Amino acid sequence: KAGVTQTPRYLIKTRGQQVTLSCSPISGHRSVSWYQQTPGQGLQFLFEYFSETQRNKGNFPGRFSGRQFSNSRSEMNVSTLELGDSALYLCASSLVTGTAGELFFGEGSRLTVL
Amino acid sequence: AQKITQTQPGMFVQEKEAVTLDCTYDTSDPSYGLFWYKQPSSGEMIFLIYQGSYDQQNATEGRYSLNFQKARKSANLVISASQLGDSAMYFCAMRPNNAGNMLTFGGGTRLMVKP
After folding, report:
1. Using one digit for the tens of pLDDT, what is the confidence trace for A39-93?
2. A100: number of CA atoms within 13 Å, CB side?
3. Residue A108 distance to chain B (closest CA, Å)
4. DSSP run (H or E) holding B14
5. What is the gyration radius of the CA atoms in chain A, in angstroms?
6. DSSP per position, B37-54
7. How close, in Å, is residue A16 to chain B by CA atoms?
8. Which of A43, A44, A97 lies nearest to residue B101, judging by beta carbons?
9. How many CB atoms are closer than 10 A to CB B45?
């Protein structure tokens, strides 16, 4: 079966712009989580959505936002981009939230901010 | 708050040998899950193995096994019979069972398999 699909895979933006990243979870999965990976800070949790509701949020400024649609697809948005937002953004999906079991990741969207 | 420590930034292992990647964690939550992921240079995080804090037996998945020592708060990954394709970054992560899918990751260990 198809895995977690993230688009776009690579993108370049300039400071001040905004960006929207998309994540399609594995079919049937209702939980989608987003993570940021940078060389300096490592992997950090951004937020989780389950059944179109934000369930958890990490310690990121309000410029980072997300949403989930009724088909479980999720988008995250970063407004007023800063150089430090350059990172690999990873999306993960699971059947449900907060129970034992696997969390499957996509290949990520690599954002470069110039 | 949770903390994951991976003390080995990089490791070499000879092909076909076994290797242990260390992971210690700190949490006050009584119920939690521990994960190991592999990240090749492509960037995708590949799920390897999961251990619940109340599981009595150590988890195993093919060539991967998790050496879970709850009292010592360690969850080391053992890879048996290393293959060249095992060269990658390996991340240990944990999730309290009351925190949805909010994982806390360690800093990772880069494993390099020598032919």
Report:
1. 999 999 999 999 999 998 999 999 999 999 999 999 999 999 999 999 999 999 9
2. 10
3. 6
4. strand B10-14
5. 13
6. EEE-TT-PPEEEEEEETT
7. 26
8. A97
9. 28
